[in-house]
UniProtKB/TrEMBL annotation:
Gene: rpsT
Name the UniProt record assigns to this protein: Small ribosomal subunit protein bS20
InterPro entries: Ribosomal_bS20, Ribosomal_bS20_sf
A Pfam family annotated for this UniProt entry: Ribosomal_S20p
Organism of this sequence: Lysinibacillus capsici
NCBIfam families to which the protein is assigned, alphabetical: S20
Top-level taxon in the UniProt lineage: Bacteria
Record's function text: Binds directly to 16S ribosomal RNA.
GO biological process, one term: translation
Similarity comment: Belongs to the bacterial ribosomal protein bS20 family.
Gene Ontology CC terms, in alphabetical order: cytosol; small ribosomal subunit
UniProt key word Aminoacyl-tRNA synthetase: no
Coiled-coil ranges from the UniProt annotation: 32-60
This protein's UniProt keywords: Coiled coil, Ribonucleoprotein, Ribosomal protein, RNA-binding, rRNA-binding
GO molecular function, one term: small ribosomal subunit rRNA binding
Length: 82
């Protein structure tokens, strides 16, 4: 544990950010997985789930959780499956 006050604060802020980023990334993965399952099962709500997955991928890319090209690649592959 650091002794300097600013370093102590950085540790706390980084921990908070890490938790928030982990939750956001997990939620993104969940929406993508739901969309993939809906497309595979040819569910009637697959378009809604695809839109939700695209939105979560774009949001993750804009926040820097994943690279923008990775988001584009995942969106493209999802769209190709649908």
């Amino acid at each position: 544990m650091p002794n300097i006050k600013s370093a102590i604060k950085r540790v706390k802020v980084n921990e908070k950010a890490n938790i928030a980023n982990s939750q956001a990334k997990s939620a993104m993965r969940t929406t993508v997985k739901k969309a993939e399952n809906a497309v595979a099962a040819n569910a009637e709500n697959k378009q809604e789930l695809l839109q939700a997955a695209f939105k979560s991928l774009d949001k993750a890319a804009s926040k820097g959780l994943i690279h923008k090209n990775a988001a584009a690649r995942k969106k493209s592959r999802l769209a190709k499956k649908a």
